[in-house]
Design a protein that fits this description.
333 residues; alpha+beta; Glutamine Phosphoribosylpyrophosphate, subunit 1, domain 1; 8-stranded mixed β-sheet; 4-stranded antiparallel β-sheet; 10 helices; 12 strands; globular; disordered N terminus; binds asparagine; Peptidase_T2; hydrolase; protease; EC 3.5.1.1
Length: 333
């Protein structure tokens, strides 16, 4: 089944659009009895422009592999936090996505990565920003959450912490892909480089999961935006913007134009709408519409509520996603 998106030109709140969304959400019911919860995972491969035919299969394979990896962790009794970390590691290792190995390059041709993770059972979170030479920033973010008294490490401190944790340094050449070298060159030659264009700043990855014990978690990881200033930090490592998870409400991971996402705290805004009684699709659309109308920002998000209802919604041209629930895999580019 294909899920309708809010096209960038559709007025937010268009009644016909919303009625389709609601009927999709209500057709997926699940129970929420602790100890008997059906595990659910949703992953995204970033708000994107149109994906070329040549890349489409690789992108679909990437998101489905990540979702299936996370689902098998959940089926084996693994936690939501293990599942979202596992999914994001798969996507960070895949050069098709703007995270880990496929990260876009900053104005100096360097890779600086941001990531965050949150455990909805206790609201603990961990984040890193502008981190270099690390293959899997999401693992480092989790270590910040579990091994320090802090929730966010940046730049030099994050790299030092990676060394202390025994994470081997990954040489820059391993993180830089030919595609991203070309993209940076193109962006630098552009007459009107437009960093606010969400469709150029694509490929961030994220996951949300609900485990058998009713725990929710999110993870988000990115190389940020092409040709960004050195030291620029986006929304992805910022809890409330790049994601949020609370067992009592839901879990969200976002993608899109970071500076817009930060302004509206997109993830927490979607969670707020869930708290107010909207279903996941309505909550996602309300948050994305607010960002679009209020600050002209485009993006997307994946969301699971505490009963396992989920939604994948976007205002960018596309947002590859995959989800598994009740053994059924769904995906869309
Ligand atoms: N593609 C993205 O989602 C980019 C990311 N949100 C950032 O602005 O850093």
């Amino acid at each position: 089944m294909s899920i309708p998106k809010i096209g960038p030109d559709l007025p937010c709140g268009s009644p016909s659009e919303h009625s389709v969304q609601r009927s999709y959400a209500s057709s997926h019911s699940s129970q929420c009895v602790v100890g008997h919860v059906q595990p659910v995972v949703v992953v995204h491969g970033g708000g994107a422009g149109s994906i070329s035919k040549e890349r489409s299969e690789r992108v679909r394979n990437g998101v489905t592999k990540a979702a299936l990896t996370a689902y098998s962790i959940l089926k084996d009794g693994g936690s939501a936090i293990d599942a979202v970390e596992g999914a994001v590691v798969v996507l960070e290792d895949d050069p098709e996505f703007n995270a880990g190995r496929g990260s876009v390059l900053n104005e100096d041709g360097q890779v600086e990565m941001d990531a965050s993770i949150m455990d909805g059972s206790n609201l603990n979170s961990g984040a890193v920003s502008a981190v270099q030479g690390v293959a899997n920033p999401i693992r480092l973010a989790r270590l910040v959450m579990e091994k320090t008294n802090h929730s966010f490490l940046t730049d030099r401190g994050a790299n030092q912490f990676a060394k202390v944790m025994g994470i081997p340094e990954t040489p820059l050449e391993k993180l830089i892909t030919e595609r991203n070298v070309k993209r940076l060159k193109k962006e630098k030659n552009e007459k009107n480089p437009c960093l606010t264009d969400a469709d150029k700043n694509t490929g961030t990855v994220g996951a949300v999961a609900l485990d058998k014990n009713g725990n929710l978690a999110y993870a988000t990881s990115t190389g940020g935006t092409i040709n960004k200033m050195t030291g620029r930090v986006g929304d992805s490592p910022c809890v409330g913007s790049g994601g949020y998870a609370d067992n009592e409400i839901g879990a969200v991971s976002t993608t899109g134009h970071g500076e817009s996402i930060i302004k509206v705290n997109l993830a927490r805004l979607a969670i707020f709408h869930l708290e107010q009684g909207k279903n996941p699709q309505e909550a996602a659309d309300a948050a994305l519409c607010y960002m679009k109308t209020r600050v002209k920002g485009l993006g997307g998000l994946i969301l699971i509520d505490r009963s396992g209802e989920w939604a994948a919604r976007w205002t960018s041209i596309s947002m590859p996603w995959a989800a598994v629930k009740e053994e059924k895999l769904q995906s869309q580019l």
